[in-house]
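Annual report, structural modelling task.

Input specification for the molybdenum atom complex:
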Amino acid sequence: MTGHEASAGSEGGPEPRIPPGQVVTPGFPVLHHGRTPSINLDKWIFRITGLVEESRSLNWEEFRRLPAVTATSDIHCVTRWSKLDNRWEGVAASEVLKLARPRPQARFVLVHAEGGWTTNLPLEDLAGEGVLFAFKHNGADLSPDHGWPLRLVVPHLYFWKSAKWVNGLEFMAKDRPGFWEQNGYHMRGDPWQEERFQ
Ligand SMILES: Nc1nc2c(c(=O)[nH]1)N[C@H]1C(S)=C(S)[C@@H](COP(=O)(O)O)O[C@H]1N2
Ligand SMILES: [Mo]
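The model returned the following structure:
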Protein backbone atom coordinates (compact mmCIF):
# COMPACT_ATOMS: atom_id res chain seq x y z
CA MET A 1 0.00 0.00 0.00
CA THR A 2 1.41 3.36 -0.99
CA GLY A 3 0.37 6.99 -1.18
CA HIS A 4 0.94 8.12 2.38
CA GLU A 5 3.67 10.58 1.48
CA ALA A 6 1.32 13.54 1.30
CA SER A 7 1.25 15.82 4.32
CA ALA A 8 -1.94 15.76 6.31
CA GLY A 9 -4.57 18.10 4.93
CA SER A 10 -6.47 20.25 7.39
CA GLU A 11 -9.76 19.80 5.52
CA GLY A 12 -9.70 16.02 5.43
CA GLY A 13 -8.06 16.14 2.01
CA PRO A 14 -5.15 13.84 1.39
CA GLU A 15 -4.46 10.73 3.42
CA PRO A 16 -2.83 11.34 6.81
CA ARG A 17 0.93 11.06 7.17
CA ILE A 18 0.89 9.38 10.60
CA PRO A 19 -0.85 6.03 11.13
CA PRO A 20 -3.44 5.78 13.92
CA GLY A 21 -2.15 5.61 17.49
CA GLN A 22 1.38 6.81 16.60
CA VAL A 23 3.32 9.77 18.06
CA VAL A 24 6.19 11.46 16.20
CA THR A 25 9.53 11.53 18.00
CA PRO A 26 12.54 13.64 17.04
CA GLY A 27 14.91 11.04 18.48
CA PHE A 28 15.83 7.58 17.30
CA PRO A 29 15.01 5.08 20.06
CA VAL A 30 16.95 1.80 20.21
CA LEU A 31 14.86 -1.31 20.69
CA HIS A 32 15.77 -4.94 20.39
CA HIS A 33 15.79 -8.27 22.10
CA GLY A 34 19.09 -9.23 23.73
CA ARG A 35 22.42 -7.44 23.31
CA THR A 36 23.92 -5.58 20.40
CA PRO A 37 26.10 -8.16 18.63
CA SER A 38 29.69 -7.44 17.72
CA ILE A 39 30.15 -8.39 14.11
CA ASN A 40 33.35 -9.07 12.19
CA LEU A 41 32.97 -7.91 8.57
CA ASP A 42 35.67 -10.34 7.43
CA LYS A 43 33.47 -13.21 8.55
CA TRP A 44 30.14 -11.69 7.61
CA ILE A 45 28.05 -13.84 5.26
CA PHE A 46 24.60 -13.20 3.82
CA ARG A 47 22.77 -16.46 3.07
CA ILE A 48 19.94 -16.98 0.60
CA THR A 49 18.26 -20.32 1.29
CA GLY A 50 15.02 -22.26 0.95
CA LEU A 51 12.78 -22.26 -2.12
CA VAL A 52 15.14 -20.54 -4.56
CA GLU A 53 16.58 -21.59 -7.90
CA GLU A 54 20.05 -21.06 -6.51
CA SER A 55 21.14 -20.93 -2.87
CA ARG A 56 23.78 -18.24 -2.45
CA SER A 57 26.22 -16.93 0.11
CA LEU A 58 27.60 -13.44 -0.30
CA ASN A 59 30.45 -12.00 1.71
CA TRP A 60 30.51 -8.30 2.60
CA GLU A 61 32.50 -7.30 -0.45
CA GLU A 62 30.16 -9.17 -2.77
CA PHE A 63 27.10 -7.71 -1.11
CA ARG A 64 28.49 -4.17 -1.35
CA ARG A 65 29.16 -4.65 -5.04
CA LEU A 66 25.41 -4.83 -5.66
CA PRO A 67 24.03 -1.51 -6.91
CA ALA A 68 23.15 0.95 -4.15
CA VAL A 69 20.05 3.10 -3.93
CA THR A 70 18.71 5.70 -1.53
CA ALA A 71 15.14 5.90 -0.28
CA THR A 72 13.46 8.21 2.20
CA SER A 73 10.72 6.82 4.39
CA ASP A 74 9.00 7.04 7.77
CA ILE A 75 9.45 4.62 10.66
CA HIS A 76 6.44 3.41 12.62
CA CYS A 77 7.23 1.32 15.68
CA VAL A 78 4.56 -0.84 17.24
CA THR A 79 5.45 0.75 20.61
CA ARG A 80 3.82 3.89 19.10
CA TRP A 81 6.73 6.14 18.14
CA SER A 82 7.17 7.29 14.56
CA LYS A 83 10.24 8.91 13.06
CA LEU A 84 9.76 10.80 9.81
CA ASP A 85 11.98 11.33 6.77
CA ASN A 86 14.71 8.76 7.27
CA ARG A 87 17.15 8.68 4.39
CA TRP A 88 18.34 5.14 3.91
CA GLU A 89 21.12 4.03 1.61
CA GLY A 90 21.58 0.38 0.70
CA VAL A 91 20.74 -2.39 -1.72
CA ALA A 92 17.16 -2.61 -2.96
CA ALA A 93 15.42 -5.81 -1.86
CA SER A 94 14.35 -6.24 -5.49
CA GLU A 95 18.04 -6.52 -6.39
CA VAL A 96 18.55 -9.31 -3.86
CA LEU A 97 15.40 -11.02 -5.16
CA LYS A 98 16.88 -10.97 -8.66
CA LEU A 99 19.89 -12.86 -7.35
CA ALA A 100 17.79 -15.27 -5.32
CA ARG A 101 15.31 -16.21 -8.05
CA PRO A 102 12.58 -17.53 -5.73
CA ARG A 103 10.79 -20.65 -6.97
CA PRO A 104 7.11 -20.31 -7.90
CA GLN A 105 6.08 -22.03 -4.63
CA ALA A 106 7.90 -19.39 -2.54
CA ARG A 107 5.36 -16.99 -1.03
CA PHE A 108 6.94 -15.92 2.27
CA VAL A 109 10.39 -15.20 3.64
CA LEU A 110 11.90 -15.69 7.03
CA VAL A 111 14.42 -12.90 7.53
CA HIS A 112 17.42 -14.06 9.56
CA ALA A 113 19.59 -11.87 11.77
CA GLU A 114 22.75 -12.35 13.79
CA GLY A 115 22.26 -14.55 16.85
CA GLY A 116 19.27 -16.42 15.41
CA TRP A 117 16.68 -13.62 15.56
CA THR A 118 14.04 -13.85 12.82
CA THR A 119 11.00 -12.07 11.40
CA ASN A 120 8.58 -13.20 8.69
CA LEU A 121 7.27 -11.36 5.64
CA PRO A 122 5.08 -12.13 2.64
CA LEU A 123 7.21 -12.09 -0.51
CA GLU A 124 5.17 -9.18 -1.94
CA ASP A 125 6.09 -7.07 1.09
CA LEU A 126 9.78 -7.75 0.58
CA ALA A 127 9.38 -6.73 -3.06
CA GLY A 128 7.59 -3.52 -2.04
CA GLU A 129 8.60 0.03 -2.85
CA GLY A 130 11.37 1.51 -0.74
CA VAL A 131 12.31 -1.84 0.81
CA LEU A 132 16.08 -2.11 1.08
CA PHE A 133 19.01 -3.62 2.93
CA ALA A 134 20.47 -0.47 4.40
CA PHE A 135 24.02 0.26 5.44
CA LYS A 136 23.52 4.01 5.98
CA HIS A 137 20.96 6.16 7.76
CA ASN A 138 20.82 9.94 7.19
CA GLY A 139 24.24 9.93 5.55
CA ALA A 140 26.19 8.00 8.19
CA ASP A 141 27.06 4.31 8.54
CA LEU A 142 24.56 2.56 10.77
CA SER A 143 25.57 2.54 14.42
CA PRO A 144 25.97 -0.89 16.02
CA ASP A 145 22.77 -0.33 18.03
CA HIS A 146 20.78 0.43 14.88
CA GLY A 147 21.98 -2.65 13.04
CA TRP A 148 25.50 -2.17 11.67
CA PRO A 149 26.62 -3.38 9.23
CA LEU A 150 23.27 -4.07 7.55
CA ARG A 151 19.61 -3.84 8.38
CA LEU A 152 16.46 -4.49 6.45
CA VAL A 153 14.08 -1.54 6.06
CA VAL A 154 10.42 -2.32 5.28
CA PRO A 155 8.87 1.13 5.54
CA HIS A 156 5.23 0.15 5.00
CA LEU A 157 5.15 -2.28 7.95
CA TYR A 158 5.80 -1.77 11.68
CA PHE A 159 9.49 -1.40 12.35
CA TRP A 160 9.94 -4.76 14.06
CA LYS A 161 9.96 -6.27 10.54
CA SER A 162 13.05 -4.17 9.76
CA ALA A 163 15.60 -6.70 11.01
CA LYS A 164 18.83 -5.26 12.36
CA TRP A 165 22.09 -7.19 11.80
CA VAL A 166 20.33 -9.01 8.97
CA ASN A 167 22.29 -11.90 7.48
CA GLY A 168 19.94 -14.01 5.43
CA LEU A 169 16.66 -14.71 3.69
CA GLU A 170 14.91 -18.07 3.75
CA PHE A 171 12.20 -18.51 1.11
CA MET A 172 9.16 -20.54 2.17
CA ALA A 173 5.87 -21.81 0.75
CA LYS A 174 4.01 -21.21 4.01
CA ASP A 175 4.18 -18.38 6.52
CA ARG A 176 6.12 -19.14 9.68
CA PRO A 177 6.25 -16.76 12.65
CA GLY A 178 9.55 -15.09 13.52
CA PHE A 179 10.74 -14.07 16.99
CA TRP A 180 8.22 -11.34 17.90
CA GLU A 181 5.47 -13.03 15.92
CA GLN A 182 5.87 -16.11 18.13
CA ASN A 183 5.49 -13.76 21.06
CA GLY A 184 2.14 -12.35 20.00
CA TYR A 185 2.99 -9.76 17.36
CA HIS A 186 0.96 -9.74 14.17
CA MET A 187 2.04 -11.93 11.24
CA ARG A 188 1.99 -8.96 8.84
CA GLY A 189 2.08 -5.72 10.86
CA ASP A 190 0.49 -3.04 8.67
CA PRO A 191 0.52 0.19 10.75
CA TRP A 192 -2.38 1.69 8.75
CA GLN A 193 -4.57 -1.23 9.83
CA GLU A 194 -3.05 -1.22 13.34
CA GLU A 195 -1.99 -4.84 12.93
CA ARG A 196 -0.07 -4.75 16.20
CA PHE A 197 -0.83 -8.00 17.99
CA GLN A 198 -2.88 -11.12 17.33
N1 LIG B 1 17.96 -8.45 14.90
C1 LIG B 1 16.95 -7.76 15.45
N2 LIG B 1 16.33 -6.82 14.70
C2 LIG B 1 15.33 -6.10 15.22
C3 LIG B 1 14.89 -6.32 16.55
C4 LIG B 1 15.54 -7.30 17.32
O1 LIG B 1 15.21 -7.57 18.49
N3 LIG B 1 16.59 -8.00 16.74
N4 LIG B 1 13.84 -5.56 17.04
C5 LIG B 1 12.94 -4.93 16.08
C6 LIG B 1 12.13 -3.93 16.71
S1 LIG B 1 10.92 -4.48 17.76
C7 LIG B 1 12.23 -2.59 16.41
S2 LIG B 1 11.10 -1.47 16.97
C8 LIG B 1 13.34 -2.07 15.58
C9 LIG B 1 14.06 -0.97 16.32
O2 LIG B 1 15.10 -0.47 15.53
P1 LIG B 1 16.00 0.70 16.12
O3 LIG B 1 16.63 0.18 17.39
O4 LIG B 1 16.99 1.01 15.05
O5 LIG B 1 15.08 1.84 16.42
O6 LIG B 1 14.27 -3.10 15.25
C10 LIG B 1 13.68 -4.32 14.89
N5 LIG B 1 14.73 -5.16 14.44
MO1 LIG C 1 9.47 -2.58 18.06
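The first helix runs from residue 60 to 64.
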